[in-house]
Amino acid sequence: MAVKDLMIVCIGYLLVISLMYFFYGIFQHLSILENLFVVDVLATIFIFCCSLIWKNSSWYDAYWSVIPPVILLLPFIYGIAPDSSERMWLLITGVMFWAARLTYNWARNWEGFSHEDWRYIRMKGSQTSPLAKFLIDFTSIHLIPTLCVYLALIPAINALYFSDTQLNSLDFFAFGILICAVIIQIVSDQQMYNFRQNLLNKGKTMQSGLWFYSRHPNYFGELLFWFGLAIFSLASYNFSVVNYIGFVVMYLLIAIGSVKLMDDRSLRTRPDFVAYAKNTPKIWINLFKKRF
After folding, report:
1. What backbone phi and psi angles, to 5 degrees, belong to 31?
2. DSSP element (H, E) containing 287
């Protein structure tokens, strides 16, 4: 962990959160969903500028976990009461649990500005024109993930601010899904962290713990989390189709896009990955997988 660089990033995100609060006040004439969307995009542009200044797109990494709780709480901070305070605390507790876990995992693995995510380097490196690199950096690395997360947050926003139903058993079911999702991520993160700490494992595929049953149990937990948020919209009797678009987008982004990138890299760098991949599902955790 690069403490100095981490402090710089923390200051940057404190600034962006302050700007989000400021801009939300400016655009209060818009609907809640419109206002949050505008504020989210403006915050992304600020972080993108930081990425350009430091010449490192990994500035954006923390955005995925730090900003969603801010988005959900901004209307409340500005005095807009949720339709059910009990549902709000249940939902926000689950989201904060997820955000704390993801932020911590990023921070302890981040090597500072001397390192940039290999996926970002690959995307920008595929372009020869400076303008093309700029556009790929802004759209594919910054803006598109922001839009995906925003879409996936819509059911939570609707459940908090556009519902006239009180807390019910489906809320607790959704909350349970969030907690289970984060626990799966915590366990898989720690197992992978321990595996990588052993230098003898360099060039090898992680095949123990949850990673025996799934190639990407952390991604499974991530998808389960976003599914849980969609369930909150059902609990609030908000059946708009838009509540489920976000989860579909997340599935395409994670289960199709991210998994392919990670697996392609493993095929190039880990000789034992081919045999492992043949018997292990990409995302889903197959508890019936047998050891030979």
Report:
1. -70, 165
2. none
What's the token pair of residue 141?
């690395």
Query: For residues 88 and 109, is the Cβ–Cβ distance under 8 A?
Result: no
Start-to-end C-alpha separation, the chain: 38
- Between the alpha carbon of residue 240 and those of residues 80, 152, 162, 188, 193, the distances in Å are 22, 13, 11, 34, 40
| Residue type at 59 in one-letter notation | W
Per-residue tokens: 110: 């981040």
pTM: 0.93
Cα atoms in the Cβ-side hemisphere of radius 13 Å centred on 8: 16
Domain boundaries, the chain: 3-278
Cα–Cα distance, 229 to 246 (Å, whole number): 10
Query: Which pair of structure tokens corresponds to residue 193?
Result: 């962290």
Alpha carbon distance 6, 103 (integer Å): 12
- The two tokens of residue 246 are 């976000």
Q: Which of 76, 81, 84 is nearest to 36 (CA)?
A: 76
Q: Is the dihedral of CA 41, 47, 51, 53 positive or negative?
A: positive
Q: Which residue has the tokens 């095929």?
A: 267
Q: d(Cα 55, Cα 74) in Å, to the nearest integer?
A: 30
The pLDDT of residue 144 is 95
- Is 238 in a helix, a strand, or coil? coil
- Measure the CA–CA gap between 141 and 120, rounded to whole angstroms: 7
d(CA 232, CA 167): 10
* Cβ contact 84:163 at 8 Å: yes
Taking the chain (292 residues) in runs of 10, the rounded mean pLDDT of each run is 88 97 96 97 98 95 96 95 88 97 93 89 87 94 96 95 88 96 97 94 93 96 96 87 92 92 92 92 88 68
